[in-house]
Amino acid sequence: MTGNKKKICIVGAGGFGREVLCYIMDTMDKTQAIADIACFMVDDEYHTEATVMGVTVIPFSAFDALLYDVVIAIADPAVRKGIVDKLPVDTTYATIIHPTAYISRQVEIGEGSIITPGAIVSLNAKIGKHAQLNHHTTLGHDCIVGDFFTTAPGVNISGNCHFGNGVYFGTNAAVRQKVKITDNVTIGMGGIVVKDILEEGVYTGVPVRKLVKR
Q1: DSSP string of 90-147?
Q2: Which domains does the chain have, with CATH numbers?
Q3: How far apart are CA 41 and CA 107, in angstroms?
Q4: pLDDT value, residue 46
């Protein structure tokens, strides 16, 4: 996490946002109070609660980039990107890495990313900005993944894979080594990727095939 005095502002107070609050609590000194370290932020129209789990909830209209480091706890890559695009250009971002995650040597992790409990990132991997690696995801050696990359729990990615921006993997999906995937691809739950994916879209099955709109 960041080492300055700004409070960490978690965008989204739903299930994942509350999990992220717990991850922050897991890194805290026992003398610290979570209310002094973090808050939630939601769209003004959804701002119906003053506090969640003992921390303040602020509306977007109250955001001040001088007071907060932001982390976006929303799974949809496109929604996350939209939030980044509408935040002030001087916004700074926190990176949350749970202490039970294993991060190997020479790994690069972009700002605003969230690495959850039990995740494994092997050596020489590069992770873009605002990425999310959910519970027990494994990312193999020498992988390069773009901004807004997202995995649901239990995703296994072999070594030397290259993925573009906005790629999303559903629960228990897996990828063969050296596979390349273009931007804005969604892999469904349990999908197995064995060859390059060069077209945007949604892919499901074993091995995955692109879903065709009817």
Answers
A1: T-EE--EE-TTSEE-TT-EE-TT-EE-TT-EE-TT-EE-TT-EE-TT-EE-TT-EE-T
A2: 7-93 (3.40.50.20), 96-203 (2.160.10.10)
A3: 30
A4: 87
What's the pLDDT tens digit per position in 122-131? Answer: 999 999 999 9
Query: What are the CA-CA distances from residue 177 to residues 13, 181, 195 (Å)?
Result: 36, 12, 9
Q: What amino acid positions are annotated as catalytic residues?
A: 141
In angstroms, the CA 167 to CA 187 distance is 8
What CA dihedral angle connects 148, 81, 57 and 93, to 10 degrees? 60
Cα angle 71-76-78, degrees, rounded to a multiple of 5: 90
In terms of Cβ atoms closer than 10 Å to its own Cβ (0-12, 13-18, 19+), residue 185 is buried
Instruction: Measure the CA–CA gap between 177 and 157, rounded to whole angstroms.
Output: 7
Give pLDDT < 50 ranges for the chain: 1-3
What is the value of pTM for the model shown?
0.94
